[in-house]
Amino acid sequence: MERDWLTVITEQGEIARIKIRVATILLADPDINPETVSRLYRDVEEKARQFDAVFLEISDELDLDHPLVDEALSVERLWSGMSVSIADRISSMAGRSTNAAEDG
After folding, report:
1. What residue numbers bound the domain in which 24 lies?
2. pLDDT digit string, tens, across residues 93-104
């Protein structure tokens, strides 16, 4: 039985967009604590790994020039971009805490 890849990709894209909205709200909070950001990062990484497994299935089943592969790559870029943004926030928080410790 062939999977309905369009539905799978659409659902996965919606999950990524919802997580982006949540991450944007959380990361906009200047008082967010490092533990919350770390949990968000781990969650995004887990969801990205889950989508990578889906993407491998898609690429095994469809030709690489199939339009749905492009759609799947777009979803992958959402996860990747979100992961980088959160990692940047973690780095900036670590830099602030290092500077605060040096100043203190």
Report:
1. 5-94
2. 888 765 555 555
